[in-house]
Design brief:
The chain has 367 residues and is of the alpha/beta class. The chain has helices spanning 2-18, 69-77, 94-100, 104-121, 138-155, 172-178, 181-185, 229-239, 283-291, 319-331, 357-365, and strands spanning 26-32, 49-58, 61-64, 87-93, 125-129, 163-169, 190-194, 246-251, 254-259, 271-274, 280-281, 295-299, 304-309, 312-315, 336-340. Strands 1-2-4-5-6-7-8-15 form an 8-stranded parallel barrel, surrounded by 8 helices. Strands 9, 10, 11, 12, 13 and 14 form a 6-stranded antiparallel β-sheet that branches. The radius of gyration is 21 Å and the shape is globular.
């Protein structure tokens, strides 16, 4: 009986510590209107937040990226009828933000106009996807976030109001040049840490590699051993971003390479160019690659698969890698998971009859 009491007490203590911030777990899913995935076909239970990309800015005022976007806005926001707790944010990107932050006047105009845009279309927040601020733009990005946050406090003194989020790099060099992490932490609800594009074909580094490894490999030397999810997420935390504000981003797409020698096809093999799909591949395309004869290998060090056939080599995600990553995120008490993007999953059930299989795994584990 005493053992049962201590077990229950310890379990309660862990739960109290984990939920001390009162923060719900986040599954943020980016969505872009590509003309293929109809937003009405999205299962809204898969995501706690859907982030629509992208709005633009004209004269320091947010505007839809395309004329047809307003109809798509309505369809995405209508998903709340099926999932009342769903939050829908709008994202704006690099070119917009570079122009806005050229002066304090531009920032002030943008901030004043942004809340009207969010209210007009029914968005729950604004996401900044600036890839990436140069060193001299680093303080301007903080100024933008601070100005938006201050205006939100004025308009919503009760503490609610639209969310402010930012998609940020997982690369050591970009983190150092682009972000003042302690200052950013004050003004964002959470960051979406883009833990992908660690490896893709580069002429100056023509080797195969994982798009989004969970861990480093033993054969990776200093600096290259930072190209993985665990290092990036923990480094942001060390710099001052609390885990309760770190949403770890995972790719649903992969990268492709053309091997220089088709008989040398391990990780870090010599490549001569991008591969099929101009260097990018979504999950259903990876399924087709395997069905047509691609040989799958799972890297137990980095916890991700790769596959090869002839001169083609692909780095991609599958059920096993997504499961391993989701468990690591949950076990390490990060705020949640982000995906780029819903469009790249098997939303039609082409691979094995299950729609959105990778997002369903994330829902089952990160909740």
């Amino acid at each position: 009986m005493k053992m049962l009491f201590y077990t229950l007490w310890f379990t309660l203590l862990l739960q109290t510590c984990f939920f001390a911030t009162g923060s719900e777990v986040i599954r943020a899913c980016y969505f872009v209107h590509d003309g293929l995935l109809d937003p009405r076909d999205i299962d809204p239970s898969l995501c706690t937040h859907i982030i629509y990309g992208f709005a633009q800015a004209v004269n320091n005022t947010l505007v839809p990226g395309h004329q047809s976007d307003t109809k798509i806005y309505e369809q995405v926001i209508a998903l709340k009828k099926k999932a009342p707790n769903l939050k829908v944010l709008i994202s704006t990107g690099s070119n917009t933000l570079k122009d806005i932050t050229k002066s304090s006047e531009n920032i002030a105009q943008f901030v004043n106009n942004s809340f009207g845009f969010l209210r007009k279309y029914g968005f729950d927040g604004l996401d900044f996807d600036w890839e990436f601020p140069y060193f001299q733009e680093k303080p301007r990005f903080v100024q933008l976030l601070k100005s938006l946050y201050s205006r939100k406090v004025e308009l919503f003194p009760a503490g609610d109001g639209p969310m402010i989020t930012a998609a940020v790099s997982a690369s050591l060099t970009i983190i150092a040049s682009s972000y003042n992490v302690p200052e950013m932490e004050k003004y964002v609800n959470f960051i979406n840490l883009m833990c992908y594009d660690y490896n893709f074909y580069r002429e100056y580094y023509p080797l195969t590699g994982h798009n989004s490894p969970l861990f480093s490999r033993k054969d990776e030397i200093i600096f290259f051993n930072t190209w993985n999810i665990a290092w990036s997420a923990n480094y942001w935390n060390e710099l001052g971003m609390p885990k309760s504000k770190i949403v770890v981003g995972l790719p649903i797409y992969g990268h492709t390479f053309k091997l220089y020698f088709n008989f040398i096809h391990t990780v870090h093999s010599l490549a001569k160019s991008e591969g099929i799909g101009n260097g990018s591949i979504n999950y259903p395309e990876a399924c087709d690659f395997l069905k047509s004869g691609g040989i799958r290998t799972f890297d137990n060090e980095s916890k991700v698969p790769y596959a090869y056939m002839g001169n083609d080599w692909i780095s991609y995600e599958d059920e096993e890698s997504i499961t391993d990553k989701a468990k690591w995120i949950a076990q390490n008490n990060f705020r949640g998971v982000m995906t780029w993007n819903l469009n790249s999953d098997d939303w039609s059930g082409k691979c094995n009859g299950t729609k959105f299989p990778l997002h369903k795994i994330l829902k089952d584990i990160v909740h």
